[in-house]
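Contributing new records

If you add data, match the layout below exactly. Sequence lines come first and carry their own label; structure lines follow with theirs. Keep one chain per record. Anything else will be rejected by the validation script.
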Amino acid sequence: MSSARSEVNPLVTVVVPSFNQGRFLNDALTSIFEQNVPVEVFVMDGGSSDNSIDVIHKWSDRLAGWRSAKDDGQAAAINEGISLGKAPFVCWLNSDDWFLSNALSTLICALQANPDAPAVYGRAWNVIEHTGKRKPVWVEPFDEDRLALRCIISQPATLIRRSAWDAVGGVDNKLHMVMDYDLWWRLFKHVGALAFVDHYVAVNREHEATKTKTLRRRHYQEAISVVRKYHGSVPLKWWLAQPYAVWFKSIAR
């Protein structure tokens, strides 16, 4: 682990998991350091062979720490990075996503206004890389039945209390596709309902290497297992949507 300067009293620990996404990483880091709150940032690179290390070196004097080595996957990297921090609020930003202006201050204010909430989340845009077109990510105010139908929370638009993160043990290292969906359920079941703030705070970048595009079948299988585990029953929607989505995405590619 290479360490550098860190904020003395950071409010937010931000972990950036990345692997061979150097073409996007600079945008993600720029968006973090343009936030108007003190942050400590850890880049957890999985041993990239592209220009990722060059990008990391560009920002190294502002990072709280970074490493580049083969790891046990995205979820393990996120847990590793969060454990290195000390800030009272935590989140991760995938290297192909980015924050909008004032995102973290908006989410911090929402957490302060909802002291019983383990986490808060806002709205996010989905941007298609090759066209630049954007559309809103499907986000709704928190409701268990709605969460059972689909993931109504956009991961890059979330901020979590470290106390709640520690209480549930972070993300599940065994999951590769829906570690965020699983986390929302565990935060809800063990701590309480997540709070929604009706502001756009982040952007999700959709490109050809996005896991939900390339591993659609595995994504649905993991999601269905999560819903069954925490909700008890799996809504019919999941069984109807899975074969259609897998087929449609395969011909779209």
